[in-house]
Amino acid sequence: MTGEPATGRASWRVTVAMLIVLLLWASAFIAIRGIGDALSPGALALARQAVGAIVLAGYALWRRPPFPRGRGLVLVIVYGLLWFAGYTLALNLAERHLDAGTTAMLVNIAPLLVAVVAGVVLKEGFPRPLMVGIGVAFTGVVLIASGGVGPHSEPIGIALGLIAAALYASGVLVQKVALRTTDALGATWVGCAAGAVALLPFLPQLVGELPDAPPAAVAGAVYLGIFPTAVAFVLWAYVLQRSTAGATASATLAVPAIVVLMSWLLLGELPTMLGLIGGVLCVAGVAWSRRRPRSAVR
Question: Does the pLDDT value for residue 250 go beyond 90?
Fold first, then answer.
């Protein structure tokens, strides 16, 4: 597979795959919040990644993708630790202190972080739209931090949400490099397995909590492992392999809006008005940062 932009029928497939990813990842915020205190953050993270790794292993045995090797394998393991383990754990912790919509808004600054790191590490520079976007998004974070959390939220969740965003952005950048030389399915399977292994210290908690967990919470953990993890991450890797990291990450701008709608309909949660304004600014800042400078357009 190549990393060249898709065209024609392939472009249509990429668009459909991205839409499915957005819906599944948005539902993950709701599922995590809905499980509540039934499973602790570490136990839930392990359960999710273990289920995902098992499902991906079965799919990989059927499709038999090439196994990552050499430098590609190292990169896959690193992004597995950053995204499948670190991000999942930080997200679970954040949703103990924030409503689902506010958490999604904070995590959604990850595309902006991707652009900033690409500007420094990949020498892409800092065009004016990027700098304006940074300022707007930072203003949004300040508004959320200064009173934008809802009645179901606590300020400590803001820091955890930003940590989750940083891990998410790091995972995207490392994954993009890894997919230059590895198969999307093979990389996702190995990355998920690496994340599950890293979360094994939470196994005693999981074993102790599962017998007392309500069936709905157990079903939610299984859902998280199958759909937002196994299915969504394979499709995400498929899209990322055919587009740039910045363009792919910017597509997730739609997730907070979907999460807020789902959270209102299913959980009865909404951020405060200040939180909504801050979230809109975060989304607007990221969207503006992805604009191409006029000179580039010409």
Answer: no
